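Note to self: keep these together.
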Amino acid sequence: MNNHLRRVLLLLCLCLSHPAHAADRVFSLGVIDEIYSQKLGEKRTLNIYLPDDYNPNDAARYPVIYLLDGSAQEDFVHIAGLIQYQTLPWIARMPKSILVGIANVDRKRDFTSPTRFPKDKQGYPSSGGSASFIAFIESELLQ
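Structure:
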């Protein structure tokens, strides 16, 4: 093995064995909360983005945006970023807002109405729960 290759391997071993200091820093875009839904009979994860100056003890009020497909693996990160950008003081295209992302559990169930077509029932056996999902939003989440 030539000398150059030994140095590269040694450097690689040192880099992989040394803990990264970047792990000490946290990047946070919001908070994660859970709510148990009686209407759905399950826990739902809520991802919540709050404006930088949000203070629960303050009298300030903010519009709230409810986001379907709102998990971190879905659209929450993108929409939170758009809200952050649009509310920057030099952009100011929308008011500072709170974003509540509703994470999916069963999208086909929650976003579809009941069907009477056997082919639909066969292809999407869990479909047809939109009324319960809407009831969850109206009577449990918005309360």
